[in-house]
Design a protein that fits this description.
Layout: E1 5-8, H1 12-20, E2 25-28, H2 34-39, E3 47-50, E4 59-62, E5 65-69, H3 74-79, H4 81-86, H5 88-95, H6 100-105, H7 108-112, H8 119-122, H9 163-170, E6 174-179, E7 182-187, H10 188-191, E8 210-217, H11 220-223, E9 225-230, E10 241-250, E11 253-262, E12 269-270, H12 272-278, H13 285-296, H14 307-324
Parallel strand pairs: 1-3, 2-3
Antiparallel strand pairs: 4-5, 5-8, 6-7, 6-8, 9-10, 10-11, 11-12
Helix pairs in contact: 5-9, 12-13, 13-14
The structure holds flavin-adenine dinucleotide and iron/sulfur cluster (SF4).
């Protein structure tokens, strides 16, 4: 591992100042992701600023919103009674993420900023436009079983890995930040970028901008939510496909619905067309079939991941039937 300096910040503004003032600076939360990437030589910061001790770990409801601090641990958020009761999709997504050991250490900010699991990205011996702009994308014609069927470009088809981000996307969450130019609130929809021709630029964050928390509107919809994750094995593993769904019904008709999908796209995938196919209609087989079709409209499967087209439709149908049965 390359030598680096370590600093521990006691105030958010100090953390921002340290990283913003240092081109090779990076924040570290729980370190479950950054240290692995540093050991493998994928990331090589020369200053690491520890934010895990900042007073940003609160979890609470106020003014109709749930607010989760960026340094809250994944495990604590998953088990929090308010999250479990009023935002079950968040709790379920977190409990389906990583292992208990990792969840006890990893932070919400770090989870949202984790990098793709594309093996070419993580192998410094491979070309990869995301790691080294302009070097190429071997996944397009290579091992692309885990890769995206939506949102890709000729430059990158890596899927976004965070289960939490998928659940937050379905709940219309906002990311709160502090940067050298002050505070910002970014809807999660705008936080993650599509790869286009610049796959190395993954989020709207600027260098030195710290995630301080996330805010989620409280609603009946959020309380009627769930997360379904399909993976290659039952223990810790990333999603092959996942669905975060929140749905309310009135006299058998879908009153409101929010859906987001993981494992199939280059960012947490929100599809207004699928929601439109459901909203205001009876939750019957014909409606579900229309939603399934809308979900895979325009999908671009590759040689090894065409199975995701059918799999994600089945996952959607399962979640809808489950929520409809409540
Ligand atoms: C074996 C294994 C299995 C896993 N399975 C899953 C899974 O199924 N689902 C899933 O979602 N995740 C999974 N993960 C990923 C895991 O959830 C992440 O490693 C963890 O959430 C990262 O959090 P951290 O606090 O340790 O981040 P760190 O390692 O500290 O940081 C990660 C990145 O975030 C940046 N960062 C950290 N905090 C902030 C902040 N406040 N503001 C701005 N940038 C910040 C860092 O600079 C770094 O780039 C798995 C990881 C492992 C090792
Ligand atoms: S899919 Fe993206 S991350 Fe993977 S090799 Fe191609 S450019 Fe790199």
């Amino acid at each position: 591992m390359k030598l680096f300096e370590y600093a521990r910040a006691s105030r958010p503004a100090d953390a921002v100042g340290l990283v913003a003032g240092h081109p090779g600076g990076a924040f570290i939360g729980g370190g479950t992701e950054l240290t692995n990437l540093m050991k493998d030589g994928v990331l090589t910061p020369d200053l690491v600023v520890d934010v895990s001790g900042l007073d940003l770990s609160g979890i609470g409801v106020g003014q109709g919103r749930l607010r989760i601090g960026a340094t809250a641990r994944m495990g604590d958020v998953a088990e929090h009674p308010v999250v479990r009761e009023r935002f079950p999709v968040l709790s379920e997504a977190l409990l389906a993420s990583a292992s208990p050991q990792i969840r006890n250490r990893a932070t919400i900010g770090g989870n949202l900023m984790q990098r793709t699991r594309c093996w070419y990205f993580r192998d410094v011996g491979s070309a990869c436009n995301k790691r080294e702009p302009g070097s190429g994308c071997p996944a397009i014609t290579g091992q692309n079983r885990w890769h995206a069927i939506h949102g890709g470009s000729e430059h990158c088809i890596a899927v976004h890995p965070s289960d939490l981000a998928v659940a937050l996307t379905a709940l219309d969450a906002t990311v709160l930040t502090l940067g050298p130019d002050g505070r910002r609130s970014l809807p999660l929809q705008d936080f993650y970028r599509l790869p286009g021709s610049t796959p190395h630029r993954e989020t709207a964050l600027r260098h030195g901008e710290l995630i301080t928390g996330v805010e989620i509107p409280q609603s009946r919809l959020a309380a009627d939510s769930r997360y379904l994750k399909l993976r290659d094995r039952a223990t810790f593993e990333f999603a092959v496909v996942s669905v975060a769904a929140a749905l309310t019904r009135e006299r058998g008709t879908v009153r409101d619905v929010r859906l987001a999908f993981g494992g199939i796209a280059t960012r947490p995938w929100r599809s207004p067309e699928v929601e439109d196919a459901l909203r205001g209609r009876p939750l019957n087989q014909a409606t579900i079939a229309a939603a399934r079709r809308a979900l895979v409209e325009g999908a671009q499967p590759r040689e090894h991941n065409a199975f995701k087209v059918e799999l994600v439709q089945r996952a959607l149908a399962d979640v809808l039937e489950d929520l409809g049965g409540r």
